[in-house]
UniProtKB/TrEMBL annotation:
<comment type="pathway">
    <text>Carbohydrate degradation; glycolysis; D-glyceraldehyde 3-phosphate and glycerone phosphate from D-glucose: step 1/4.</text>
</comment>
<dbReference type="GO" id="GO:0005524">
    <property type="term" value="F:ATP binding"/>
</dbReference>
<dbReference type="InterPro" id="IPR022673">
    <property type="entry name" value="Hexokinase_C"/>
</dbReference>
<dbReference type="GO" id="GO:0005829">
    <property type="term" value="C:cytosol"/>
</dbReference>
<dbReference type="GO" id="GO:0008865">
    <property type="term" value="F:fructokinase activity"/>
</dbReference>
<dbReference type="InterPro" id="IPR043129">
    <property type="entry name" value="ATPase_NBD"/>
</dbReference>
<dbReference type="GO" id="GO:0006096">
    <property type="term" value="P:glycolytic process"/>
</dbReference>
<comment type="pathway">
    <text>Carbohydrate metabolism; hexose metabolism.</text>
</comment>
<dbReference type="GO" id="GO:0005536">
    <property type="term" value="F:D-glucose binding"/>
</dbReference>
<feature type="domain" description="Hexokinase C-terminal">
    <location>
        <begin position="215"/>
        <end position="455"/>
    </location>
</feature>
<dbReference type="InterPro" id="IPR019807">
    <property type="entry name" value="Hexokinase_BS"/>
</dbReference>
<keyword id="KW-0547">Nucleotide-binding</keyword>
<dbReference type="InterPro" id="IPR001312">
    <property type="entry name" value="Hexokinase"/>
</dbReference>
<keyword id="KW-0808">Transferase</keyword>
<dbReference type="GO" id="GO:0005739">
    <property type="term" value="C:mitochondrion"/>
</dbReference>
<dbReference type="Pfam" id="PF03727">
    <property type="entry name" value="Hexokinase_2"/>
</dbReference>
<dbReference type="GO" id="GO:0006006">
    <property type="term" value="P:glucose metabolic process"/>
</dbReference>
Length: 482
């Protein structure tokens, strides 16, 4: 566009409205430092129960080393459907032999826990039968994407239902036990050991099979979260896992970083649009950080800015439409469509027309600028949080330089044309002593769940072998004494 004084004036007014979304490097460094404090609070023995960032122990104590192999079942329950998978792991690959989707009827989502788990056990039984696996007792990885407090790798207590579920008799109970009881009630098949898997941990583990330096998992999709391998000696909140001097034992921590800011720690960067999104959400005051970043909310933030600028007569000749004034109509996927390099302008025209808005060339330019500003803020905030993790790992290990890999999943990261590039660029500026490689996960909740189970099995076998060899040493000593 040529220099048009009126356009220049409009753009400079628009920029003023968008200033509140700009986060310079110094601000991001400050945010990263705040999150670092929250990590310590979440890991602390006496502070974790009131920490905004929960730092949940997962009891996953190692990443894949490439020797894992065998057949595994995986069960992925995170919404109105659940998946059952048969996965074969060998030296070269993790292969889904077969998978099946099962629906959960609406009435079952709000029925009794027993009904729900009987339904899951029935679908799993059908699958095992159809795959001729009935005679085998295969280990199972269980991805259960609801807030849980994990007590052990195979014991996880549901804190509360979300996503439209409200089955009675499950909150406060161990979901692994409920699943095993339901399978036992049927009596026509059995499963081996069970490993509970958070989807973020699954993302890290599925990538860890391809790249053994992968020690961080990150999801930026409908929600956002990350996990990483923490030194066990820093996980003060877990009882009975003492670490001997000089031992380098680790545990994967599910940060639940979406809750960052729930205690007011991000008040200074919240805009009036963020406050409105929070006020009208189903969980006001909860998941502050997630609401500035994830796919569930970005489209709504853009819509609120569009409404404001239209009311200020800086867009669409000051004329809104019924659709634009309706919450939820501007979908997050529109942002990716609008920001596409080649078809962006065409896409913007079509999206605005579908929302009943009449736009000119200046409007198209401004709408793109708004989308770019809001997705860019999301990428930069993610970068600040990820920098906290990589810097922490480097300091934990007393390294001058850390080389590590992040396994990533989620539609915002995968589908937005500039998001991954901006995030990677910014995290390198915020963590200059870290060399970070990014790989996109393939099926973290399926293959990743199988990998968690495979690693747990390998560790259990190693520990049995150690115990056996200790036992032999004891026998030798006894013989010598006689």
């Amino acid at each position: 566009m040529g220099k048009d004084p009126q356009l220049e004036e409009t753009l400079s007014k628009v920029q003023k409205y968008l200033e509140c979304f700009h986060l310079p490097l110094e601000k991001l460094q400050e945010i990263s430092a705040r999150l670092k404090k929250d990590f310590n609070r979440g890991l602390g023995k006496h502070t974790h129960h009131r920490a905004a960032v929960k730092m949940l122990p997962t009891f996953v104590t190692a990443t894949p080393d490439g020797t894992e192999k065998g057949d595994f079942l995986a069960l992925d329950l995170g919404g109105t459907n659940f998946r059952v998978l048969h996965i074969r792991v060998n030296e070269d690959e993790q292969r889904v032999m077969k998978s099946q989707n099962c629906a959960i009827p609406q009435e079952m989502m709000v029925g009794t826990g027993e009904q729900l788990f009987d339904h899951i056990a029935a679908c799993l039984g059908e699958f095992v039968n159809s795959q001729d696996l009935k005679g085998q007792t295969l280990p199972l990885g269980f991805t259960f994407s609801f807030p849980c407090e994990q007590k052990e790798i195979d014991k996880s207590i549901l804190i509360r239902w979300t996503k439209g579920f409200n089955c009675s008799g499950v909150e406060g109970e161990d979901v692994v036990k409920l699943l095993k009881e339901a399978i036992h009630r049927r009596g026509d098949y059995d499963i081996g050991s069970v490993a509970m898997v958070n989807d973020t941990v699954g993302t890290m583990m599925s990538c860890g099979y391809k790249d053994q330096s992968c020690e961080i998992g990150m999801i930026i999709g409908t929600g956002t979260n990350a996990c990483y391998m923490e030194e066990l000696k820093n996980v003060k909140r877990v009882e009975g896992m003492e670490v001997k001097e000089g031992e380098n034992r680790r545990m994967c921590i599910n940060t639940e970083w979406g809750g960052f800011g729930d205690d007011g720690a991000l008040k200074d960067i919240l805009t009036e649009y963020d406050e409105e999104v929070d006020r009208t959400s189903i969980n006001p005051g909860i998941h502050t950080f997630e609401k500035m970043i994830s796919g569930m909310y970005l489209g709504e933030i853009v819509r609120l800015v569009l409404v404001k600028l239209t009311q200020e007569k800086l867009l669409f000749n000051g004329e809104t439409s019924k659709a634009l004034l309706t919450p939820g109509t501007f979908e997050t996927r529109f942002i990716s469509e609008i920001e596409k390099e080649d078809k962006g302008v065409e896409n913007t025209k079509k999206i605005l027309a579908d929302l009943g808005l009449t736009s000119n060339a200046v409007d198209l330019h401004i709408v793109r600028l708004i989308c770019d500003t809001i997705s860019s803020r999301s990428a930069r905030l993610c970068a600040a949080a990820l920098a906290t993790i990589v810097n922490r790992i480097r300091v934990n290990r007393k390294l001058d330089h850390l080389k590590t890999t992040v396994g990533v999943d989620g539609a915002v990261y995968r589908k937005h044309p500039n998001f991954s590039e901006e995030l990677q660029d910014m995290v390198r500026r915020l963590a200059p002593q870290c060399d970070i490689n990014f790989i996109v996960s393939e099926d973290g909740s399926g293959k990743g769940a199988a990998m968690v189970t495979a690693v747990a099995q390998r560790l259990a076998l190693q520990s049995r072998l150690l115990e056996d060899s200790d036992g032999e040493d004891d026998d030798d000593e006894e013989e010598e004494d006689n």
